[in-house]
Amino acid sequence: MALFFSLLPQTVLVASQSCNVDSFNDVLGISAKVVSAVSVSDGHAYGEGTANLAYPIAPTKLPELCALIVNVSSSDISNYRFGLFLPTQWNSRFLAVGNGAFLGGINWLDMGSGVRYGHAVMSTDTGHNSSAVDLTWALNNQERKKDFGYRAMHGSVELAKKITEAYYGARISYSYYSGASTGGRQGLKEAQISPASFDGLLIGAPAWYTSHLQTWSTKVALYDLPVTDKKHVNPSFFGVLAAEAIRQCDEVDGLKDGIVSHPELCDFTLAPLLCSNSPGTDPSACLTEEQVETVRNVYGDFYAEGKLAFPGMEVGSESQWSFLLGGAAPTAFGDAYIQYFLYDDPTWDWTQWDDGIVWQADEADPGNCTADAYDMAKLKERGGKILMYHGAADALIPPGSSQLFYERVAEVMGGINGLQDWFRYFIVPGLQHVTGTVVDAPWYFAGSGSQGRLGTSTYSTPGFEDSKHDALLALMAWVENGTVVEELIATTWKNQADPSSGVLRQRPLCPYPKRQTYNGSGDPDVAESFFCQ
Ligand SMILES: *[C@@H]1O[C@H](CO)[C@@H](O)[C@H](O)[C@H]1NC(C)=O
Ligand SMILES: *[C@@H]1O[C@H](CO)[C@@H](O)[C@H](O)[C@H]1NC(C)=O
Ligand SMILES: *[C@@H]1O[C@H](CO)[C@@H](O)[C@H](O)[C@H]1NC(C)=O
Ligand SMILES: *[C@@H]1O[C@H](CO)[C@@H](O)[C@H](O)[C@H]1NC(C)=O
Ligand SMILES: *[C@@H]1O[C@H](CO)[C@@H](O)[C@H](O)[C@H]1NC(C)=O
């Protein structure tokens, strides 16, 4: 908060009140330049359209604001840009939002979600211009890797705060962060390298373990490859597997509702799916011994050269398996990382895989992406708070990954109970990667990127704009008022992308290790029928 206020000469504060390029450049050093400043009137849209490959969709019906684009030189061979929304009606808070996957672009849509709260909101393009799966920009460019890893976020936060305080001639009262997937990693990383950047962070399904996660993305696909091998399980079978998981594991949480809410309580067995156990079954609807081994590997934690490298897929996530396991080759998330980030060798291909690659990635950690500085005492000592969440049905980043992060932070910071007063972790039953469900589970609580699933002008949780149903408002109440987040209520609608279709279900999400528990008799679609224990 207010880190740079004292550096700003009074004249800048007065001179910078209008929304034009020249009034901001005095605030910035020589390596940064405002390239665009646009006054957006109330009710209008703002974005870059298709020039922004990563985030072409513009938020609409914005409040009146000043929209800036700033270009920052980070080395002789790299630069990054960030966008900043400065609302006319400012509530004195700052919010940074994150990116997804390897998307290189300013995330205007999530900035739009944030500015509706009245915050000044920033997003960085992380130093490149690309789609989610294009990593060619990183080839032989260690500086761009660093921008992606941490430097673009850190520099953008610092400069955006300076501009914000100069624009309003007032201090920022509180600073927040909201991001999921890569965005979750970006937030944790920034909190690790600069504990004073944020007072509160909302972190979804973080891709924090970059060196392990990306290499595992190749490894997990290889269990099922090549497609000509006897062990190969066709992605069309994943639906059968998902149904079997529901059959065996739905009710262990005390409620038959089609949702595997607590997979950790279920002793899932593949035996009923074995072809040899049901002679005469269509071979595409059962598993051979070799295929059972493949499926077991996918669920299993990955030990590389005898050491835990990455957690496996969770029971209940099968409907999303085809994302990493669907093709004739692993995805770019693994392969392109190894080619363009780790080896700077586009000719590398997955037939050259060996498990030692994980430890090479761990050691090199190109760009210093991995957010594994588990001792976050400085954040805690400042009063900083983290709310982290992860979908139990996520098959892009298994929820075990967040669990591992939480446990490792706990290990160095006084155990799981010792974390409760500053860092809480919520598992979201039935939520896939970041947003969405295929089992009608309540998943919406205004987490990063979720507003965009409902439209381009969504604010908070439609119909429930309060700190019980909106995780960002809950985080603010925790930071500013000390209101501990005992539960968050998740919502889903009859059409999960359309609140006007009416609420289908609401349920509480519980801070780990507490579990969402059905009370045994109430309406399973209302939150009051569940408690955290
Ligand atoms: C990003 O790349 C695309 C395609 O090459 C280009 O059209 C666009 O102008 C670039 N955007 C920025 C912000 O440089
Ligand atoms: C941003 O800065 C880099 C140098 O750091 C420069 O090459 C590039 O043209 C600038 N882009 C814009 C849009 O000003
Ligand atoms: C890499 O990031 C960590 C925080 O995750 C930080 O402690 C460390 O100093 C960084 N290393 C370098 C070389 O920048
Ligand atoms: C803090 O509490 C006050 C009084 O109840 C309330 O008006 C305010 O909205 C709360 N602040 C936050 C961020 O929740
Ligand atoms: C369960 O929750 C419902 C509210 O949905 C409540 O009416 C009922 O009394 C609760 N039952 C028990 C056993 O707590």
TrEMBL record:
It comes from Apiosordaria backusii. It comes from the Eukaryota. SUPFAM superfamilies: alpha/beta-Hydrolases. Its EC number is 3.1.1.-. The keyword Chaperone does not apply. Belongs to the tannase family. InterPro entries: AB_hydrolase_fold, Tannase/feruloyl_esterase. Pfam families: Tannase. One of its GO terms (molecular function) is feruloyl esterase activity. This is Carboxylic ester hydrolase. Keywords: Calcium, Disulfide bond, Hydrolase, Metal-binding, Serine esterase, Signal. Residues 1-16 form the signal peptide.
